[in-house]
Amino acid sequence: MTRLRYAALGAALAYFFDPQNGRARRKDAIKRIVRLGQRQRGRLGAKATRLREGPRPQPDDVTLARKVESEIFRDADVPKGRINVNAENGKVVLRGEVDSPELIDDLVGNARKVQGVQDVENLLHTPGRPAPMHE
Question: What's this model's pTM, rounded to 2 decimal places?
Fold first, then answer.
């Protein structure tokens, strides 16, 4: 194991101290390390900012409906043109026709996960089944 470490160290030294390309390789490696450190520092700063934030206010109905749409339509298999999403005072209503009961369960579950959703009314149905009535 020790020989392998020494061999790796020797290869790295030969790579970085090569008479023809070593200087450019060292500069490139330093630039990459600095950029990586800046990215990590930016991520840590954003995480710290999120931790300091207080509770977010309830989004308005239009914003909430768009957030739910962006979440449930993320999967390419979801028939976007056949599903209608409305929000009323934190309650999201899903209407439309989808291909399977499993997809209905997935859509309702994903809608419930969106921050700001207080309740989900499911009016989705499969082909050949009548649409559920609005409560």
Answer: 0.57
